[in-house]
Amino acid sequence: VRADPWSRGSYRLGFGAAASRLRHVPRRTASCCSRSRSSCRTLLATALAQAGRPAEAAPLLTGVAAGHHPAYRLYLPDDLLALAWGAAAEGATTEAIARAAEAADLARDAGSPAYEVLAWQTAVQLGGATAAATRRLTSLAGLGPRAETALTHAKAWSDEDGDALLEVAHAWARLGDLVAAGDAAAQAADVQRRAGRQGSALTAAATAEKLAERSGACTPALVVAARPLPLTAREREIAALAARGLSNKDIAARLTLSVRTVEGHLYRAGHKLGVSERAALSGLLGVE
Questions:
Q1: Sequence-ordered alpha helix ranges (H) in 25-129
Q2: pLDDT in tens, 179-227
Q3: CB pairs under 8 A, 24+ apart, for 82-88?
Q4: Cα 229 from Cα 220, distance rounded (Å)
Q5: In the CATH scheme, what architecture does the domain 233-285 have?
Q6: Are the beta carbons of 208 and 186 closer than 8 angstroms?
Q7: Which of 44, 79, 197, 231 could form an S-S bond across to 236 if both were Cys, CB 3.0 to 4.6 Å?
Q8: Is CATH 1.25.40.10 the right assignment for the domain spanning 5-226?
């Protein structure tokens, strides 16, 4: 996929750059131009969020994608993807997927196919937007190996094909995108487990764990693979937000739900997990 230098910078994050490798970025921004400072901040925030460190990513995401000169619009998809990963790291996967889809639509309108591919890939890694992603990636597949692999990933996740997802994981690894590879393997484990194929699930989960060790990532898909629980995606999302200290009202506002709906999901999650206190959710969900 052809991309401008800043888009290629985003791709390098997908290649598994650990957050620790970007710690020097803030110290260098004083001598950079405004765009470079913004890009360094965006890249670092994305890496920290992908590493499962939302508290460190959050300050860097303040004001991202807002108040910029119109000429900056070309780079807004990158910022929206940083916000997507930030939301995902906080447990708000619905918001994260919406951000990624927004980035894809913006990239399409701006005529930036490389950004659009990356945005739809991100949406699929986060577990959503498969119909829209498949439709758009089908038209973009001719751009190169990344677009083709992203399309295969979207189809495999939509079809809940665990074997195909594991193959996609290997394809991403061959391309050097270890974060996407880990997510595909983790999704394969989730699909196989839900289908009752425990042996295949364990194999996929072990692959995901090895890829996570190489990339330093701790994404939502990897957390699900590492801590399988008898919860629906929505129950897990709401339980994770509750474990992070959000009130039912805050969760409802963030996910655009009624407070009663949030209460119902939390009750069912607690019943399935055998807990009645919000504090107990943190350990079960791996929320720090």
A1: 25-28, 34-50, 54-61, 76-89, 93-110, 113-125
A2: 999 999 999 999 999 999 999 999 999 999 999 999 999 999 999 998 8
A3: 82/42, 82/43, 82/45, 82/46, 82/49, 84/122, 84/123, 84/126, 85/45, 85/46, 85/49, 85/50, 85/57, 85/122, 86/45, 86/49, 86/54, 86/57, 86/58, 86/61, 88/49, 88/126, 88/219, 88/220
A4: 13
A5: Orthogonal Bundle (1.10)
A6: yes
A7: 231
A8: yes
Residue type, 148: E
CB neighbours of residue 248 within 10 Å: 20
Neighbours of 109 (CB within 10 A): 11
Domain with CATH 1.10.10.10 in the chain: 233-285
Over its C-alpha atoms, the chain yields an Rg (Å, rounded) of 18
Contact 75, 37 (CB under 8 A): no
How many whole angstroms separate alpha carbon 28 and alpha carbon 14? 22
CA distance 192 to 77: 33
Which segments of the chain belong to CATH 1.25.40.10? Answer: 5-226
Residue 262 has pLDDT above 70, yes or no: yes
Query: Tens digits of per-residue pLDDT, 115-160?
Result: 999 999 999 999 997 899 999 999 999 999 999 999 999 999 999 9
